[in-house]
Design a protein that fits this description.
By secondary structure, the chain is α+β, with helices and mostly antiparallel strands. The strands form four sheets. It has a five-stranded antiparallel sheet, with no helix packed on it. It folds into two domains: about 40-145, no CATH class; about 155-215, no CATH class. It has helices spanning about 10-40, 175-190, 200-210, and strands spanning about 40-45, 50-55, 60, 70, 75-80, 80-85, 90, 100, 110-115, 115-120, 125-130, 130-135, 165-170, 215. A hairpin with a 2-residue loop joins strand 11 (about 125-130) and strand 12 (about 130-135). Helix 2 packs across helix 3.
């Protein structure tokens, strides 16, 4: 865009033009910068471990790929992040107690407290329930609990899953694909509801890989 000015007017006119140009430049820069700030993950440290998630209230235009509808449709879930429709967008939200998801978040923590087992990620506590894991209200005092180390459960020989087809969406090199696949395989095998259940393992593995930028078929 070409701008032409005449300088034969009073000094005040030049000052006004300068202010207009500065305001224009500020607006052009600020809009993408503001969008970047809204989408930037915040660092949370709880139970002794840091984790990066988008803050509650962050808006996105479309849900991520395999997000699932939970409950009556007011909430959607993907990779440990909950979303809720808000004015033509989807906003990062906190889920209602009682909602059930089929798989735990990739970076979940296992917490033993008062004789019960809880699972924690992204500010939300879960417990095992029919069909998956239910969002629960955290009991008083659980915030101080140290996570339990989870060891992958061995798969029965007859239940070993077939090798899936993995498609990198972000151009990841072969070495990175293999490293991510190994980590996701270990995480999937450590899911409490996976032992001897090939379908549960495959679902967990695919969810983990999707969160790292892969499509699994």
């Amino acid at each position: 865009m070409k701008l032409t000015f005449e300088f034969n007017g009073p000094v005040l006119k030049w000052a006004a033009l300068t202010a207009t140009l500065l305001a224009f430049q500020t607006t052009v820069w600020a809009e993408p910068h503001e969008r970047e700030e809204r989408g930037r993950p915040g660092m949370e440290v709880r139970h002794g471990r840091p984790a990066a998630y988008p803050a509650v209230g962050v808006r996105i235009g479309a849900l991520p790929g395999p997000a699932i509808r939970v409950g009556d449709g007011r909430f959607f879930y993907h990779a440990g992040i909950w979303y809720s429709p808000c004015g033509g967008y989807y906003c990062v939200a906190r889920p209602s107690f009682g909602l059930v998801v089929p798989m735990l978040p990739v970076d979940m923590m296992v917490l033993a407290f008062a004789g019960l087992t809880y699972y924690y990620a992204n500010g939300v506590y879960y417990q095992a329930a029919p069909g998956g894991y239910v969002v629960v209200e955290p009991p008083q005092g659980i915030e101080t609990v140290v996570p339990t180390q989870v060891e992958p459960a061995p798969m029965a020989p007859q239940a070993l899953p077939a090798a899936p087809m993995i498609y990198p969406r972000n151009g990841q090199p072969a070495a990175q694909v293999q490293a991510d696949a190994n980590q996701c395989s270990n995480w999937a095998a450590a899911q409490p509801n996976v032992a001897g259940n090939v379908n549960a393992y495959n679902q967990a593995f695919a969810m983990c890989m999707d969160s790292r930028g892969y499509t699994v078929r």
